[in-house]
Amino acid sequence: MTEQKQSVSVLFMLFSILFCVCLIAANVLETKQIAVGPISLTGGLIVFPVSYIINDCVCEVWGFRKARLLIWTGFAMNFFFVALGALCDAIPGASYWHNDEGFHAIFGLAPRIAMASFVAFVVGSFINAYVMSRMKIRDGGRHFSARAILSTVAGESCDSLIFFPLALGGVVPAGELPALMLWQVVLKTVYEVVALPVTIRVVRALKRHEGADVYDRGISYNVWKIFSLG
């Protein structure tokens, strides 16, 4: 139950697809500011925390090296999507097309949001995976709930501290940014806590099905060793 394979399983592939879809959806949804009572948020809150939950599951079951592959795959697919959106936005619309303003409102802002998202995502995701990995070794595999929550707090905090000033500086009033960042971290963590019972069951089912429960002893945490899986 502790060996790490150089290949990837079908379930890992499916989790990777869902991870990429969540990241791409979050980039588009982040362009809308929403209000939940008196709290200002971005629409990305609906889906982005799911990517951290998937990251937790992958790191817990398959280890940091598979999580590293997952993170860089998500980065590449997200970049590809944003590049296509920006290209389409730059091409002149047909004479009968009257939705340029709406299309540009989403994809015209997306490149700036995406670049901020890319940096924040990579930093936050790797911190999340690193904390999960190190705490698992320290605790001998116990206390999954604690490391899932603490890794999310660490990752989401770094993500928000990087993303919001870069993506929304000058768009959102400066006085609103600190509260927006804080609420994002708090609510994404609450999201993780609410989903935790499901996450625990998913992790247990994955370990049984895959016959894997990886401990990252003696590995390199170098984020550039993308294809070093075994």
TrEMBL record:
Localization per record: Cell inner membrane
At the top level of its lineage, which domain of life is listed? Bacteria
Q: Does the keyword Transmembrane apply?
A: yes
List, alphabetically, the GO terms of the cellular component aspect: plasma membrane
Keyword Transmembrane in annotation: yes
- Give the residue spans that cross the bilayer: 7-29, 35-54, 75-97, 109-132
Question: Its Gene Ontology molecular function terms?
Answer: transmembrane transporter activity
Any Pfam family from its record, for instance, is Vut_1
Membrane topology, from the record: Multi-pass membrane protein
Q: Which UniProt keywords apply?
A: Cell inner membrane, Cell membrane, Membrane, Transmembrane, Transmembrane helix, Transport
**Task performed by this protein:** Involved in the import of queuosine (Q) precursors, required for Q precursor salvage.
Sequence similarity: Belongs to the vitamin uptake transporter (VUT/ECF) (TC 2.A.88) family. Q precursor transporter subfamily.
Q: What is this protein called?
A: Probable queuosine precursor transporter
Q: Which organism is it from?
A: Prevotella dentalis (strain ATCC 49559 / DSM 3688 / JCM 13448 / NCTC 12043 / ES 2772)
